[in-house]
Write a structure and sequence with these properties.
By secondary structure, this protein is an all-alpha fold. The chain is built from five helices and no strands.
Length: about 210
């Protein structure tokens, strides 16, 4: 009976050591890069949280929402009149709003990262100039700290921005493809309850996000 708690304790001890080392490395990096690094870390966590939420939505939640909107259209008897076309456009717009939700905020965070890195560069150079003004060029250690504060935030901001920009481009591409599939599933002909789409599919169709069934 006591083997299971011992196993959990050993697993936690093995996990706690890498986590403590990771935290120590992160704090050392932030200490060298200055307070802007913590702002970049906060923006990075928020950015990747939004990316994860969008991925979960596109792969699972959109399955139910697209099926519900599609069923509203397929149950209509009239699909040819002017009013029916307006209803179809309204359903497509509603799905587009749901698919594009949070992408604007994500784009803003991606653009914010290089600016925060530039802010870190400016504050680092100010620190270097302060050292030169008070100590001259004799305080090499103080100048090195200022150079660290000038370069590390820029590097971190660019890395976070590039990774976020790649994921934003992928999300926008998957959103366009999903919206096109949804629009194609709203057929303009046929009887009520018929259609060429399977209600259980997500907006990505059978292939998920281009890599198999989600």
């Amino acid at each position: 009976m006591s083997s299971r708690p011992d196993c959990w304790r050993r697993a936690w001890s093995a996990l706690r050591l890498p986590m403590s080392e990771l935290w120590r490395a992160l704090t050392d990096f932030a200490h060298q890069g200055g307070p802007v690094i913590w702002l970049l870390l906060l923006v990075s966590v928020l950015m990747w949280t939004l990316i994860g939420e969008r991925l979960l939505y596109l792969l699972w939640v959109s399955r139910r929402q697209s099926a519900m909107l599609r069923q509203q259209w397929l149950q209509r008897v009239d699909r040819q009149s002017w009013f029916a076309h307006r209803v179809r456009e309204g359903l497509i717009v509603e799905m587009a709003i749901r698919l594009n939700q949070c992408l604007g905020l994500l784009r803003t965070l991606v653009l914010l990262c290089p600016l925060l890195g530039l802010l870190g560069t400016v504050t680092g150079m100010v620190a270097v100039f302060d050292v030169i003004a008070w100590e001259g060029t004799s305080d090499a250690q103080g100048m090195a700290r200022g150079v660290y504060r000038a370069t590390l935030p820029t590097m971190a901001g660019l890395v976070i921005s590039i990774s976020g920009l790649y994921m934003l481009a992928q999300l926008q591409r998957w959103t366009r493809q999903g919206l096109q599939r949804f629009a194609d599933s709203l057929t303009l002909s046929g009887s009520a309850g018929s259609g060429n789409a399977v209600p259980g599919n997500s907006v990505f169709g059978h292939g998920g996000a281009g890599h198999g069934n989600p």
